Amino acid sequence: MRTHRRLGLIGRVIPFLATGVALIALIVAALVEIETNSRVDTLATSIAAVRAGFEDLGNRVDQAKAPELGDAATQELATLRAQVAALEAKLTALAATPPPPAAGAAEPVVGEAAPVAVDPNLPTTDCIPIGTRFMATPDTTYPLCQSPVVVKVGMITGDSASIIGAGEIAETSFALIAGTKCTVMVFSADSEGFAELRVSCT
Q: Which of 4, 63, 108, 165 has the greatest CB tally within 10 Å of its CB?
């Protein structure tokens, strides 16, 4: 009678264990897919259902005296429970991982300079941006944006421009403006009184 009862219980448990193994294999495969598709909610429901099934089986086994199942079946049940717990832990970790950026989203440029803070005490309008080419005329001053340096242009000839603090600079040449860390370059100059300049500062 005990033998018949034991075989009957094992006969009911083994199919469930086999089904549990198959379900865990499917969940593992789904975990691989979820890392790219982010279907966390669906998988969480599936794992919860499997865990509930195992817990119900465990309760029935406990009530029916587990030793009758034999060591192999009892160990298999414990192993499946552990696998479900591991899958739940991985699911929790995936749920806490920020989703990947949407396709086409702009990525920060490596090495991109941070915005420079604006000093309200330095020019921001009616000034020449540092590093920008501009046309100059004789006896005119040109403040540099966000800099205390002011470029003062003197006489302009057919091949040079005179810059206060830097002297006479021939076309395609440059010179340091005295008392500053800025250099001024003359790209071109003409006898009509125009010169193309650029100021660079370090």
A: 165
Nearest CA to 180 among 155, 152, 156?
A: 152
pLDDT digits (tens, 9 = 90+) for 50-98: 666 666 666 665 555 555 555 665 676 677 777 777 776 776 676 666 6
User: Rounded to the nearest 5°, which phi and psi values hold at 182?
Assistant: -115, 140
Calculate ∠ Cα 162-167-168, nearest 5°. Answer: 50
Upper half-sphere CA count for residue 129 (Cβ side, 13 Å): 4
The answer to whether position 70 is within a domain reads yes
pLDDT tens per residue across span 110-149: 665 566 688 999 999 999 999 999 999 999 999 999 999 9
How many residues make up the chain in this entry? Answer: 202
For residue 170, is it within any domain? Answer: yes
The reply to whether 190 falls in a domain is: yes
Same domain, 137 and 92: no
Helix pair angle (40-63, 2-37), 10° resolution = 170
Structural domain harbouring 141: 133-201
Are 144 and 202 in contact by the 8 Å Cβ rule? The answer is no
User: What's the predicted TM-score (pTM) here?
Assistant: 0.44
Residue 108: inside a domain: no
- β-pairing, 150-156 vs 160-163, is antiparallel
Residue 92 sits in the same domain as residue 143:
no
